[in-house]
């Protein structure tokens, strides 16, 4: 049930981030809905294909699509009457990243896969939808920008897996994992933190 709720909340939050990007890009209502859906289910769809989980999660359970429609409609209604929050996109994206990364890692963990695969699947679940959103709206994907993004997801997933290994109750491990990703991502944006750059030595 906890995994299911994380998935639904992550879908809703990422759908909102898709609508915000669509609004900034000047797309129409249909474009906003398409971008919301692509953001919300893109990462999970790729994860399910790679893990051979069929039917894919949103085909098996249409409530995911209903959540996308509801979240996108509410976001569009809000933007019709009020300006978007100053950092609304970054907050929605960071929260979606955190929720999807942990839920993706849990799915791989429940399938009996190794911790390394759980980290990979969780990171991909959290980042692939946002990458598709940014590419389709002609933006540089956040994962390719300088501040921490995928690194934040990896840090939170590792924290979750370590706590699980130590016998910490799942709800606490999930909460800590989500918090690590969310805080790392937001602090990286505020402080401009990034991984060391590669440098070429020329003769």
Automatic annotation (TrEMBL):
Spans through the membrane: 5-23, 29-50, 62-81, 87-105, 112-131, 143-163, 172-193
One Pfam family per UniProt: Gly_transporter
Subcellular location: Cell membrane
Domain Glycine transporter: start-end pairs: 5-77, 91-164
Record's GO cellular component terms: plasma membrane
Chief place of localization: membrane
Keywords noted in UniProt: Cell membrane, Membrane, Transmembrane, Transmembrane helix
Membrane topology: Multi-pass membrane protein
Family: Belongs to the UPF0126 family.
Protein name per its UniProtKB record: Trimeric intracellular cation channel family protein
């Amino acid at each position: 049930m906890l995994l299911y709720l994380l998935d639904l909340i992550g879908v809703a939050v990422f759908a909102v981030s898709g609508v915000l990007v669509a609004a900034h890009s000047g797309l129409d209502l249909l474009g906003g809905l398409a971008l919301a859906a692509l953001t919300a289910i893109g990462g999970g769809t790729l994860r399910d294909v790679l893990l051979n989980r069929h039917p894919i999660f949103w085909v098996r359970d249409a409530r995911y699509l209903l959540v996308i429609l509801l979240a996108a409609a509410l976001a569009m209604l809000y933007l019709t009457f009020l300006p978007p929050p100053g950092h609304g996109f970054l907050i929605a994206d960071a929260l979606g990243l955190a929720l999807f990364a942990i839920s993706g890692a849990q799915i791989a963990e429940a399938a009996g896969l190794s911790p390394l695969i759980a980290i990979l699947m969780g990171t991909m679940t959290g980042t692939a939808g946002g990458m598709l959103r940014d590419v389709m709206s002609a933006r540089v994907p956040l994962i390719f920008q300088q501040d921490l993004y995928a690194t934040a997801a990896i840090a939170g997933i590792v924290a979750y897996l370590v706590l699980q290994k130590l016998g910490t109750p799942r709800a606490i491990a999930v909460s800590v994992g989500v918090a690590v990703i969310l805080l790392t991502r937001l602090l990286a944006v505020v402080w401009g933190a990034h991984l060391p750059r590669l440098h070429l030595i020329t003769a």
